[in-house]
Amino acid sequence: MKIGKHELRLERRLAPLAGGDAAKISLVAILVGLALFSIIFILADVNPLSAYKTLFSYAFTSPYGLSATANRFVYLLLCTLAFIIPFRAGLWNIGMTGQLYFGALGAFGVLYAFTGAWAPPTPDPGVSSGLVILLMILVAALCGAGFAAIAGFLKGRFNVNEIVTTIMLNFIALWFVRYMIFGGGPFMNPGGRSESFNVPPSARLSSISVGDVSIPLTIFLAIGIAVLLYFLFTKTKLGYQIKAFGHNPTAARYSGVSPLKITLLVFIIGGMIAGLAGYHYFGGPGGSGYNKIQRNFYLIGDLAFYGIVCGLISLGNPLSAIPVSLFFGGLTTGTRYIQGQFHMAFGLDYALLGVLMILLVAFQFFSRYRIVWTKKLKGGG
Asked: Where are the transmembrane segments (predicted)?
């Protein structure tokens, strides 16, 4: 584009920005998103500065808000990591929702196998907490992995589009959970309510108290998985094969990489991590979620899709996913709080997250391209 004596053109970068430069682009996108969303506050007669101050102070400094942020952070980080590992192989895992539902059902299945459903006023059965908690975690991971393996096998063996498959599997999981908790299934609450039975206190993983802040022990599991995935991608032969397959499947195949093996493996690992997200939210540490599966369980499943955007924003880097997930975990907590504090309409949190995510993804364009402003030379066309 020519403007007077200057020329404006779009130029592709030799390599996509990474590290600090990519972080700067994300920061600009966030600031632009917050500025645009201020219009919503102004229309609601709310001072944007007061709203944002209340949002961030509640989510990251108040004891109760920080506890909620920590729990939401663990959930989002696990969902993000479940997306990242297939993404590095050039595949899209849109099925974290179904996988985490099956992970939650697996955890509840362990409790049911040990004690059956509890009917009030039956007391806490006092199950051996260490063994049951370990089994809940393992079975949740295995159930998520098994459910994800369906999409991985169909993609690797028959080249069935994994996006279509995982979306269809999400609906299968949703209706299966619905049956299990209030459609006549064995996990129904004996009191007749539209929810599952409660996880007894003896079968809940403990939380750490730091002052008045409660931090779930699953936070170490989530961060540990992020570190292991980073090590996998940067230091191992398998990680190199996954990345090579993602960059060029045909070349990777000629070098001896099995498409079926890689596709099945990344979906199984992604499903395991998503299953752990289901355990954390529905049956994990006290206060992390409901400690039961409620009628509106699908809402927390919808939140799993934010893991896709967090994965894209972090550019598939497991370590970068940690601060990104923490930020969005705080936003989901803080916006829900100011929604009531300023008497604003329901759904404010989803609207703000939606605006930010659209802009964050859109601004990734500038990690691959740059705008060049040059002065035309004399005699130039």
From this structure: 21-44, 64-87, 99-119, 131-154, 166-188, 208-233, 262-283, 303-328, 348-366
What value does the CA radius of gyration of the chain take, rounded to a whole number of Å?
23
pTM: 0.91
pLDDT digits (tens, 9 = 90+) for 33-59: 999 999 999 999 999 999 999 999 999
What DSSP string runs through 207-258? EEEETTEEEETHHHHHHHHHHHHHHHHHH-HHHHHHHHHHH-HHHHHHTT--
**Cα–Cα distance, 116 to 110 (Å, whole number):** 9
Residue 2 domain-assigned?
no
CATH number (domain holding residue 107): 1.10.3470
On whether residue 84 sits in a domain, the answer given is: yes
For residue 380, being part of any structural domain is answered with no
Helix locations, the chain, DSSP H: 19-43, 48-60, 63-88, 96-115, 129-158, 162-182, 218-235, 237-247, 249-254, 259-283, 297-303, 306-313, 321-341, 348-363, 365-368
